[in-house]
Specification:
Structural class: mainly alpha
Largest sheet: none
Oligomer: single chain
Radius of gyration: 17 Å
Number of strands: 0
Order of helices and strands: HHHHHHH
Strand content: under 5%
Distance between the termini: 30 Å
Shape: globular
Length: 178
């Protein structure tokens, strides 16, 4: 389902200049990230939380939000006085939450499938940040980075979702944990 929302977000990127295009681009992207988040959260709910992971997650969260709020100042006045910045903050928050979950997922499971998921999410993050900089700073080579990391992310995400050997390995690891 998340892949469908990513595809719809790509269609909305064509109409990014229009107000509704911006809204749907950030909105559909946020929904896609939150769908992935809730899917993985459901898988991790049966594991107990450990204090070191919560402390590390808290520090990483603080660093991510500082970076997110400073990104606005890097682009200058390009989004000043616009509602786009609020869309960006909500979108960025959904990315940060999903990144934190993917790190915790790998920390707890330690499987190849968890690593593939983490790399997919990091690739999506790099893709989104580089497209944001490419658009608002006018640096066209960043769109090449956007495309490359987006394709990598989609390949990894599809691999994560449908590869039976990864799923069986993770089920084996899960059974060993209990």
């Amino acid at each position: 389902m998340a892949l469908i929302f990513f595809w719809m977000r790509d269609v909305c990127a064509i109409y990014y200049e229009a107000n509704l295009g911006v809204f749907f681009y950030f909105g559909l992207g946020t929904v896609a990230y939150l769908l992935l988040f809730f899917k993985q959260l459901k898988n991790l709910m049966h594991l107990k939380f450990e204090a070191p992971s919560i402390i590390a997650t808290g520090l990483f969260t603080l660093a991510c939000f500082i970076i997110l709020f400073n990104l606005k100042y890097l682009i200058g006045d390009a989004s000043e006085g616009s509602i786009v910045i609020y869309y960006f903050y909500f979108f960025g928050t959904s990315i940060i939450v999903l990144i934190l979950l993917s790190i915790y997922y790998y920390y707890r499971m330690g499987s190849l499938r968890a690593l593939v998921f983490s790399f997919a999410i990091f690739s999506l993050m790099i893709s989104d940040v580089s497209s944001y900089f490419g658009y608002y700073l006018g640096v066209n080579p960043l769109f090449l980075i956007t495309g490359v990391f987006y394709i990598i992310a989609l390949v990894l995400l599809i691999n994560f979702l449908v590869r039976p050997s990864l799923i069986s390995e993770e089920n084996r690891i899960e059974n060993d944990l209990f």
